[in-house]
Amino acid sequence: MRKGLHPVTIAMLLFGFAFLYAPIVILIIFSFNEGKLVSVWSGFSPKWYGELLRDPQILSAAWMSLKIAAMNASVATVLGLFGAYALGRFGAFKGRTLFTGMMTAPLVMPDVITGLATLLLFVGLAWQRGMSTITIAHITFSMCFVAVIVRARLSSLDQSLEEAAMDLGARPAKTFLLITIPMLAPALVAAWLLAFTLSLDDLVIASFVAGPGSTTLPMVVFSKVRLGVSPEINALGTLIVLLVTLCIVVAALIFQRQEAQRLADAQMADRAD
Amino acid sequence: MSDTAEKRPGPHKPSGWAVPGGDPYISIQNVTKRFGEFVAVDNVSLDIYRSELFSLLGASGCGKTTLLRMLAGLEEPTEGRILLDGQDMVGVPPYERPVNMMFQSYALFPHMTVAQNVAFGLKQEGMGKGEVEERVEQMLGLVQLGRFARRKPHQLSGGQRQRVALARALAKRPKLLLLDEPLAALDKKLRESTQFELMNIQEELGVTFIVVTHDQEEAMTLSTRIAVMNEGVIQQLGTPSEVYEYPRTRYVADFIGSVNLFEGTVSGTGAEGMRITAPEAGIDIHVDAGQTDARAGQSVAVAIRPEKIAIAKQDDKPSQGENVIQGIVDEIAYQGSLSIYQVRLADGKLVRVTTPNLTRTAERPIDWEEPVWLSWGRHAGVVLTS
């Protein structure tokens, strides 16, 4: 019997890939379109990339988005870590189940509700809306994602490592710093990146709590598209896809090399007995 | 409980507990630990003396690890007191106790090198850099891992990791070292050599060791004394030979080594010995006097170790008048240094007999389904009342 893929399997595979990637491929192709119309091909040109880099509105919005995303990711990682640690290591304290539920509720809360609720809060506090309000709103929902990721890692961590550190004379705070945090590092990095992406991605919540002079990149893109899709936006999309792909490939390569090294080490070590 | 242990003859190692009136180093007093409804440790009292290598032996879930963790300060007793060198330890956090523990998983810090692992506890003490380096070198020398100082734990074999864990636990020169299943993760060959290494190190440093293990052979080899635990209670406390030769309960007899148990009733007591009618054996079993205070009519069990029973061919009937029964060989297991016979008695009870293979080929080997005589002396049986 011939080994290989059945035609039906191939068809399904192609359909799946087309479903996932056709829109992105079209976006990339049309970012190199000469003409202003998005849906009609009129020759190859990279000119829209040049346009993009000269557009002060997009550039400032991108910078704003990056600042918010970085700040959000950093604060959310710290807060999420504390939440996860409390849930994972403080034993069965009173109200833990409630806390666990409340910690994960924002994950399934519609963005519109989160946006509205935070907006009402800021209005109630008479807080000047702007970059700070967007950041705070983002932190409230992304720290839950952080907590979920960190807690998963924490529960798979051998608790005797922390016990051993205390047994050797390290006080709880020192144990946390010297043992728990380094052990959680991969999860913390992953959580930071996720929080960063979530913030960069968010349109709904930001639209609710934004003020004058605090327009994020998704908001600019959305408002521009409402006036008609321009190839400039395609160019922007292409750059973002490129950036994301690059990050994923680099991360995968690093991980693969580490894993191979670890396996080789372990094999070497076992031969020593 | 311990009064019988002191009366009994047996090979004693000269140490604190043999000296009457010696002060216990660790004193566990009426300690109970409950997790919700579950009683992990049930009113345990125990004295351990300086420089002992003491084993807590029991099946998993018997409470031995919980007891160890209470000594380390990782759990607090629900009731009772733990004294270390006369000082009450209850409420003292683990990082303030002069006690170190070697974890079953070894719990080596994966992001630190071997040397950093060993140095961890010393740095917490605030010891100077030079002194730390010197001590680390000394400890790694002790476990023969000097040249692995810069490796990470995942670059070591199981046996090497075990030794790093030991070096790390000993680095602070604790008064008391707790070892949770120290050899469980090693394969059999390595376990045997490591056992002796552990004993040498203990003797060299004079540290008091408390070892938790489920492996009775390990406990017998290592320990000065053993506490056999079951369901949160200490069943018996004694030297390895006491626990083996004079088990006090059916559980201990069965748990330590293998044993033949004959249920029966005491049918006669006297100065020359005790007679137990054992329907399972089909005869009256005679044992030495002075073992127990069991009265006539009381139902008891007689425990006889397989190596204390002699096996003989049909035409070679033992000359003694008592403790002789007939059976048929059901199963033979040849193990090189010794052979194990499983002999079926008249009413179907199986008796285990082990004999050393003294000559290379037995001239007249005992065969399957062959009728044989089993016999033992009065000293062989142990009467168990509980």
Report on the architecture of this protein.
The complex is a heterodimer of chains A (273) and B (386). Chain A has 273 residues and is an all-alpha fold. Chain A is built from eleven helices and no strands. Chain A has helices spanning 7-31, 47-54, 56-89, 96-108, 111-125, 131-156, 159-167, 172-201, 204-209, 217-226, 231-270. In chain A, helix 2 crosses helix 11, helix 3 (56-89) packs across helix 10 and helix 4 (96-108) crosses helix 6 (131-156). Chain A is globular. The mean pLDDT of chain A is 88. Chain B is elongated, with a radius of gyration of 25 Å. Chain B is 23% helix and 33% strand. Chain B has 386 residues and is an alpha+beta fold. In chain B, helix 6 links the parallel strand 7 (176-180) and strand 8. Chain B has helices at 3-7, 64-72, 114-124, 129-142, 158-170, 188-205, 216-222, 240-245, 250-255; strands at residues 26-35, 38-48, 53-57, 79-84, 87-88, 99-102, 176-180, 208-213, 225-230, 233-238, 260-270, 273-278, 283-287, 299-304, 310-313, 324-334, 338-345, 350-356, 371-375, 382-384. Residues 1-16 of chain B have low confidence and may be disordered. The longest helix of chain B has 18 residues, at 188-205. In chain B, helix 3 (114-124) packs across helix 4 (129-142), helix 3 (114-124) packs parallel to helix 5 and helix 4 (129-142) packs across helix 5 (158-170). In chain B, strands 6-7-8-3-9-10 form a six-stranded mixed β-sheet, with helices on both faces. Chain B has a five-stranded antiparallel β-sheet with strand order 13-12-11-14-20. Chain B has a five-stranded antiparallel β-sheet with strand order 15-19-16-17-18, with no helix packed on it. Chain B has nine helices and 20 strands. Chain B has two domains: 3-248, Rossmann fold, CATH 3.40.50; 258-384, OB fold (Dihydrolipoamide Acetyltransferase, E2P) (Beta Barrel). Classes of the chains: A mainly alpha (273), B alpha+beta (386).
